[in-house]
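Two folds, back to back.
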Amino acid sequence: MSRVLVTGANGFVGAALCERLARDGHAVRRAVRLAERAPAGSDAAVVGEIGAATDWRDALRGVDSVVHTAARVHVMHDSAEQPYLETNAEGTRRLALAAVEAGVKRLVVLSSIKVNGEGGDGRVYRATDPPSPTDAYGRSKLAAESYALEIGRARGLEVVVLRVPLVYGPGVRANFLRLMHWVASRRPLPLGAVRNLRSLLGLGNLCDLLCLLREHPAAPGKVWLGADGEDLSTPDLIRRLARAFGTDARLLAVPPVCLRLAGALTGRGAEVARLCGSLQLDITPARGQLGWRAPRTVDEELALAARWFRSQEAVQGG
């Protein structure tokens, strides 16, 4: 039985990953920021704020591998560079160096496709493409990857980097949760004329891939891309979400040029661009070199998300 440290263990991805690893029979240590956030009865390590000065020694003691999901996440209209660099870049650098000192074998770093860019240019992103981040978050994740991979090469730590697109599932927040509210309430959405393709990644599928990358012999020293393997247009995603909620999608065919103009006028241009633009990932290497296939279909992952959403509605309504 291996012992795995999961950072960001109370987060959207980290909490689900801890559950998956425990089900698979691994001993899981949860790195949390505050003592009161540690799940009762769990093997938890309080590390405080993540950055250049984080003390990882207690958290890493006796650990075989680390999955680093903790991060300062992308927030709309938050363009300050230094907070992202401190948490995401310097925090990852500190963790990698501490892992070397602790004798950890492998470090898996969860990153973002924002390292490649924002899409919209018709290209399908590959792990080998020159990075082209456009915001502070993307630049900080690129720096985090670079630090970890350089330390791995120099100090003998097996480092694996996984870049992912939008992740959805039980516990999702931000834009995808907002979209679920719109669809569940049967609000008319002016997105019926959008013709795009976007890669997504269900939470269960992400956890499955992270578990594979934690142990596969071909994984270290490389950057991998992960996605469900079925790219969807925004209207198709809305229709499938509606089906998961047991209702019909209400789509209005407003020309995308009008949507973009409205977004620019209301200060929501970036959000509209994501709804209208394409962003696709090439996951051929993960399939060919790792033999990975997403264990759940998009519809299965959406059904789980919808079930969670309804359960939250029931709790709030009660």
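---
second:
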Amino acid sequence: MKRLWYLVLFAAATAVGCGSDGPQALSGGDGDVQLSPPVMAQMEALIAEKAARTPAQRKIASSLLYAKSGRFDAQLAANASSGREIKSLSQVDPQGRVLVDIRGDMSAVGAQIETLGGSAVEVRSNGARAWMPLDAMEKLASEPAVKTIRPAYLASTRPVGKPSGGLKSLSGSRADRIAAVQAAEAAWDARQTSGLPPQTFVGATNAGSVVSEGDKAETADRARRFYGTDGTGVKVGVLSDSDDFSELAIATGDLPPNTTTVPGQDGRPGTGEGTAMMEIVHDLAPGADLFFATAFNGPERFAANIRALRFQYHCDIIIDDAIYFFESPYQDDIIAQAVDDVTADGAL
């Protein structure tokens, strides 16, 4: 176990323990890098500190405990001043609360989140995601029903490509997207009152005000003509960050009127990446029924929504563009297990 901790702490100790002359490491005679006595002393101190933690503290991720104690503040500040800044991946709200994932029996401790000054983002039977003050972590962890508290795993999305325009090509910050949507709404309203005919496309099997370049790139337009099919009778489930702007997309015909979002799983506020994905699917398969659920709010929710799209909404095809960096390369984690469940049931 001590050897494992040496490996885990090596990067942190050499980075945090850097002075103005760089990492405190020595070169051995055989060419191997050997840690200097100050770095070894830091590692031994961290191992001893971990062994001395209380039962409640052992349920809490080290990064949260160190953030509360400020143990490394001086070293991190010194690194930042020398241009070697280490940035925390934890999300912090304006009140200084940290976004955390809590695992445990929420029927027993769910109410404690608010009592201790936190704010729940989502509560499940076996866990919750919440904004929590650092000072409240140990109190919450002292509850027998709580198993672990760690910084929230955060998702990111893989961009869906560069379509030909409209909502599907929106990029930039949320404010930029909202401004673009407002401009699109104004242009749409102006066209409706101008007496001009609605925008149409040759072929008339595509959907909406703008057609994705993917329709040509994937030769879906040729497939529709050759096989005489448009996706009718197929249910497609989409997972991404959010379905922001989907109402406008329905109004412009870029999404079908029966587009369905799993209740409570719209992911808002977000970037609307899920809406962009659904618009592209609608261009390629305009007859398909579309369903959306967020892939954010934690791996557990991502996995639950994969299953919901299949077992509750009976989606034949499920797609996503989300990734969590905790995903294991060595064994199936909860997301991969959910994928196995739905494909075993016949989903693609």
